[in-house]
Amino acid sequence: MKLSGLDIVIILIYLGLTVFLGFLLSKKASKNIDSYFLGGKTIPWWILGISNASGMFDITGTMWLVSMCFVYGLKSAWLPWIWPTFNQIFLMIYLSAWLRRSEVMTGAEWLKTRFGTGKGAVLSHQVVVIFAIVSAIGFISYAFKGIGKFAYTFLPWDLSPDTYALIIIGITTLYVIKGGMYSVVFTELLQFGIMTVASIAVGIIAMNAVSPEALETAIPAGWKNLFFGWTLDLDWTGIIDTVNHKIEQDGFTLFGYFFMMMLFKGVLSSMAGPVPNYDMQRILATRSPSEAAKMSGIVSLVMFFPRYMLVAGLTILALVFLGPSLQSKQEIFDFELILPYAIKNFVPVGLTGLLIAGLLAAFMSTYAATVNAAPAYFVNDIYKKYINPNASDQRYVRLSYLVSFVLVAIGVVFGFFVTSINDIMQWIFGALFGGYAASNLLKWHWWRFNGYGYFWGMMAGLAGSLVMPLAFPGVQPLYAFPYILLIATIGSLLGTWLTPPDDEDVLEEFYKKVRPWGVWGPIKRKVLGKDPTFEKNKGFGRDAFNVIIGTLWQLSLVVIPIYLVIREYSYMTVAIAVMLLCSILLKVFWLDKLED
């Protein structure tokens, strides 16, 4: 793509400012590993929340969302449940507070508060480190593929997608490694501001360029319908015939069954708590449990409107102006390139530079957050714990630089072998995280579950996640989730039942401090025997109610900007009413009830 001089200047200024800010904050970040990985637990919750939202506003995911919105219309609002996006609701309602009460640095270190320090606890600790590193490498590969495709389409130099990806990843890695969490969080504030302005501008441009009548001729019946039956019932024949092939290839034809699988997997994964990545790191970096809950809440509030203004705007531009060309050529199109196509052809000079800078920011936010979070598991949970517990703070920080670089290098190597963003996205979220659900669900809600059970459940789930794509390459990753879950559950139960329970003193302390609900009867009785004034958590009913209301609230935040851009104002009004009602209920039954 040929960029104007103004666009190139805007992009270069943004890149320079980001690197400058990262280096400016590096001195503050390098005091010790607590400062490097958690910002010294001094950063306000709302800043961490916007930073977290920025980290989730990734370019690769946005490319996927645009391709899904193009093909599936309003029904695409449900598809991010495969990640699942509503895990943020479970976090804001109760899990962030539970997790933050531990006062630790990483998810692996948190396990000591649950399983103690015995051999089972050591094994559970080590397997979380393995999972964190494997998933980080997967995310880096995912980011590598997305930024390469994006940059190749937009940037004016004659380089391959992989070469572009190496350059941009190199620049980002430079400021992340040097600046730590301070650098990541405060550059993400800048990046989120740029993304928001650019995204809303694209939505407005699309509204002015595409009339409701033009859109109506470019979409099949049912495209504007949020709801669905057992089958998808979207027929693109005569409009863009090749989209029917895309739907069949995705495996979404039986959409009702696919939705139930998403919901089943999503609820279990959400109840298991956050995986060991930047989301968990920001929870642990907050100043208190109640601030951790509010931090998770603000993510949904600020992220969806700008992101879906961008997604819907680019989608309708592509539908109306690219659709006829696709139909006439009858070629299989790479739908992940819809986003760069729409920007290339419909966004004016100046705004193109800002939007490209914003999407680079989206990539850099997600990538930076991942690269900053993952090394903590090696440095804090392996090197400091087992190899050199008395090293200087400077040594730990320098080792963090090295580990970050090694992880990036491995992720990039894997990225060279990935062919599709959708394939790796679905593998990470549909399969790999499926191996995480069983052990991490049981750790919160069953007193008898021990460190050995956690270790064998995680190992079984991780092995199933890695083997499944190789043994059954034609299976949709989400449909593999029940099998992976079964394997992980068997490993968890056998590991628990074939070994003795954990130290009851550790379990009692955990139960008193975290106050989870679930099957904790024997431990609850022991705690009450020692402290009759102790009050167990009676909030299960309220938490379940708030999760349902919160999920509806989040879904309304997704569809409001889509309805706005396609000018379906009656549906938008209904969605706004749902959002306001849910907001009032959450204020009364969640926000006003928060406690540390």
Number of helical regions: 27
Mean pLDDT, all residues: 82
Structural class: mainly alpha
The CATH architecture can be given as Up-down Bundle
**Cα distance, first to last residue?**
53 Å
Beta-strand segment tally: 0
Q: What is the rounded Rg?
A: 24 Å
Give the SSE layout.
Layout (H helix, E strand, L loop, with lengths): L4 H20 L1 H4 L3 H6 L6 H12 L2 H14 L14 H14 L6 H9 L3 H36 L6 H49 L2 H7 L23 H9 L4 H18 L5 H8 L3 H33 L1 H7 L8 H9 L4 H23 L1 H13 L5 H23 L5 H12 L1 H12 L5 H21 L5 H21 L6 H11 L6 H10 L9 H26 L3 H21 L7
Helix pairs in contact: 1-9, 1-17, 4-9, 4-13, 4-14, 4-17, 5-8, 5-14, 6-12, 6-13, 6-14, 6-26, 7-8, 8-9, 8-17, 8-18, 8-19, 8-20, 8-22, 9-14, 9-17, 9-19, 12-21, 12-23, 13-14, 14-16, 14-26, 18-19, 20-23, 21-22, 21-23, 22-23, 24-25, 26-27
Structural notes for this entry:
The protein is mainly alpha-helical and 596 residues long. The chain has one domain (5-432, 535-593): Up-down Bundle (Sodium/glucose cotransporter). The protein is 75% helix and 0% strand. It contains 27 helices and no strands. Helix 1 crosses helix 9 (161-209), helix 9 packs across helix 14 (289-321) and helix 12 (255-272) crosses helix 21 (434-445). The termini are far apart.
Give a summary of the structure in a few sentences:
The chain is an all-alpha fold and 596 residues long. The chain has helices spanning 5-24, 26-29, 33-38, 45-56, 59-72, 87-100, 107-115, 119-154, 161-209, 212-218, 242-250, 255-272, 278-285, 289-321, 323-329, 338-346, 351-373, 375-387, 393-415, 421-432, 434-445, 451-471, 477-497, 504-514, 521-530, 540-565, 569-589.
